[in-house]
């Protein structure tokens, strides 16, 4: 299934670009985890993943303080 076809995404995330980005990042994380698990299952290995969340950088700081305005170069 496509992420854009999920009812929750259509109703909520598509109205808020920040939330949509968060969901897309999480789905990418899960897909990478699933792909790694598939390739390692022959060795009976488990895959643990860590998602650090937001990393505070000057760009992230500017976005936090943008009050919904897009950051432009």
From TrEMBL:
Q: Show the InterPro entries listed in the entry.
A: NAD(P)-bd_dom_sf (IPR036291)
Q: What is this protein called?
A: Short-chain dehydrogenase
Organism equals human gut metagenome
């Amino acid at each position: 299934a496509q992420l854009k076809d999920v009812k929750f995404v259509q109703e909520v995330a598509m109205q808020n670009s920040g939330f949509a980005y968060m969901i897309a990042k999480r789905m990418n994380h899960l897909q990478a985890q699933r792909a790694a698990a598939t390739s390692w299952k022959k060795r009976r290995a488990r895959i643990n993943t860590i998602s650090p969340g937001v990393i505070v950088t000057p760009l992230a700081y500017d976005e936090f303080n943008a009050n919904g305005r897009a950051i432009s170069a």
